[in-house]
Design brief:
Blueprint (H helix, E strand, L loop, with lengths): L2 E3 L4 H18 L13 H4 L6 E3 L1 H8 L7 H12 L22 H8 L1 H4 L15 H11 L7 E2 L5 E2 L6 E2 L13 H4 L23 H7 L2 H4 L6 E4 L3 H19 L6 H11 L2 H4 L4 H4 L3 E6 L2 E5 L3 H7 L2 H10 L2 H8 L3 H18 L5 H16 L7 H11 L7 H9 L3 H14 L6 H8 L3 H16 L8
Antiparallel strand pairs: 1-2, 3-5, 4-5, 6-7, 7-8
Helix pairs in contact: 1-4, 4-5, 11-12, 16-19, 18-19, 18-21, 18-24, 19-24, 20-24, 21-24
The site of zinc ion has 8 residues, from α9.
């Protein structure tokens, strides 16, 4: 019987993400035979958003040849590997990514208090004063095969997190409470803001969700840790993987703000993958930040989310690759982008330096189009092409054309264009007429700048 895990509220999803990371480690980097498993993570992350643990994987995770279920070994081993199970005097000594040696029993014995003692992630979930044998019994039960105990039809209790019905093992009832011992501050009423919350139900958590909940410390451990939530584990996996590597890259120089982390994750995750999220789901991406024991939830406005999912915007942001430009996109600041585009274009016109002005201008036009929900009159690409072909005619006047544009002097711009085309015996292009028919001042400037940016890119341009 396969075990299906459905995405639910962010807390549950973050727990499952911690579990997935542990599995990934156990199937790739881990060397100790007591934790090693064979699984391709990509195959258990389904397109419908679920995680499926099939019989083959379940057999590996729940076998007990070391005296503990293998999943309990993975849980302990990965935590140790990440350097999360230090004793106080070891805090400095333990470098990150320590590979553990020796047998699992020893590791459990030595390190269990690093998870269950006062001030640790699951304070008193298992009483640290208990004998090791008792600890072992509890762990064996908690990390045992949950498939026997859960079903969607019957069972004594209903799970608060996933809705499954289940019957706890005898004597294990207290481990299924949605308590501070397992969930910390999140367990108190009102402190867990989520629409999935059902206050009418008993506050119990099923066998599957208890196992997952014990992986929370993998995700939320120190200040600044974060989790990107989506209604699909497949999307969650890839979004968080790219966001984590992005954050590692910037953390040395400056702290990354959450909108930039979320935005970057969306941009760098393959569009093909994100397409599995419907448009409703895309709007429900959120980022949860962990800071001093509390969780802060943040997201991006729906229109900005739409913009980041737009292939043209995504392409332009990555082409320009400038944090300042990116932050303006995240803030929906088209005015700022227009100004930036103008400044870059002016530099190009004045001294011929290449500054990607046309990409910035195109970005401003496209962003405006998405934010305002209107179709542009004329494509920036065709304007740029017109400008490119007109470059030779405006060799000496393009700076003047740009300044008149900046000042919004439409009729002077129009006459300069018209005169120039006529003087060279060329037909005045119809697309340019469309530029003058726009009522929006900013649009007019952006279209004109797109046209002028083509001139700076014309072959041989300036120097002839
Ligand atoms: Zn559950």
């Amino acid at each position: 019987m396969e075990l299906k895990i459905y995405p639910s509220n962010w807390l549950h999803n973050a727990n499952v993400y911690g579990f997935l990371r542990a599995l990934e480690w156990a199937s790739t980097e881990a060397e100790n035979q007591a934790v090693k498993i064979k699984v391709d993570l990509r195959s258990i992350l389904k397109d419908d958003g679920t995680v499926v643990i099939d019989d083959d994987l379940a057999e590996q995770l729940y076998e007990t040849s070391t005296g503990f279920p293998r999943l309990a070994n993975i849980w302990m081993g990965y935590s140790y590997y990440l350097g999360l199970l230090y004793k106080k005097d070891e805090r400095k000594k333990i470098a990150e990514n320590v590979e553990f040696e020796g047998d699992m029993k020893k590791l459990h014995k030595e390190r269990k208090n690093m998870l269950f003692a006062k001030g640790r992630a699951y304070q008193n979930f298992i009483n640290v004063a208990f004998s090791f044998e008792k600890y072992k019994d509890y762990i064996t039960s908690i990390f045992g095969d949950p498939r026997k105990q859960v079903s969607f039809e019957d069972g004594e209790k209903e799970c608060l997190l996933c809705g499954r019905r289940f019957t706890p093992d005898e004597g294990m009832e207290e481990f299924h409470e949605f308590s501070a011992r397992l969930f910390g501050e999140l367990s108190s009423f009102g402190s867990f803001p989520n629409a999935f919350w059902n206050f009418d139900t008993d506050r119990y958590v099923c066998n599957v969700c208890v196992q997952m909940a014990l992986f929370r410390h993998i995700v939320f451990n120190k200040n600044g840790d974060f989790f990107i939530n989506a209604p699909s584990f497949k999307a969650i996996w890839y979004l968080n993987e790219v966001a984590r590597s992005y954050k590692e890259g910037v953390s040395k120089s400056k702290s990354a703000i959450s909108s930039a982390v979320l935005g970057t994750a969306i941009l760098t995750t393959s569009p093909k993958l994100l397409r599995i999220l419907g448009s409703w789901a895309r709007q429900n991406l959120e980022i949860v930040h962990y800071y001093k024991g509390t969780y802060l939830i943040d997201s991006l406005p729906p229109k900005i989310m739409d913009a980041l999912f737009d292939s043209k915007i995504s392409y332009l942001i990555q082409k320009i690759s400038d944090d300042y430009v990116f932050s303006m996109v995240l803030n929906g600041d088209t005015e700022g982008l227009a100004k930036e585009g103008y400044e870059r274009l002016r530099d190009e016109v004045v001294d011929g330096r290449r500054k990607d002005s046309s990409a910035v201008i195109e970005l401003a036009i496209r962003l405006k189009e998405i934010l305002k929900g209107v179709k542009v009159l004329v494509s920036s690409k065709s304007l740029k092409e017109l400008g490119r072909r007109a470059g030779d005619m405006f060799k000496n006047t393009k700076y003047r054309l740009l300044e008149l544009t900046r000042l919004g002097r439409r009729s002077e711009v129009y006459h300069l264009l018209l005169r120039t085309y006529m003087a060279h015996g060329r037909e005045f292009p119809g697309e340019l007429n469309k530029v003058f028919s726009t009522h929006d001042e900013e649009d007019f400037k952006l279209y004109m700048m797109a046209y002028i940016s083509g001139m700076t890119e014309s072959a041989g341009g300036e120097e002839e």
